[in-house]
Write a structure and sequence with these properties.
Elements: H1 5-8, H2 12-21, E1 25-35, E2 38-49, E3 56-58, E4 64-66, E5 78-79, E6 82-83
Length: 84
């Protein structure tokens, strides 16, 4: 979700806590911005890991696939209830 793994120390136990305890792992990103010859440090708080996945492609047989940039439902073929 756009959070730096190096600065937020996300590991396996964070993923387990999200799945088992329905928690949310938060993280911060630090970016530098130059505007009008002034350097600023911007800190953004984000949800790093959540139990919610909101990008899916639903096929004609109602099966769901993860969203992949550049692909749509028409790019998949369903044959005999199998994805090929």
């Amino acid at each position: 979700k756009g959070v730096s793994l190096k600065t937020n120390s996300i590991d396996k136990t964070d993923y387990e806590n999200v799945v088992k305890n329905n928690t949310v792992k938060t993280g911060t990103n630090i970016n530098f911005q130059l505007k009008n010859n002034v350097m600023s440090m911007i800190t953004t708080n984000k949800n790093a890991i959540t139990g919610c996945h909101n990008k899916m492609i639903v096929l004609s047989n109602q099966s769901c696939l993860p969203y992949i940039s550049g692909l749509c439902a028409n790019d998949y073929v369903v044959s005999n209830s199998k994805l090929i």
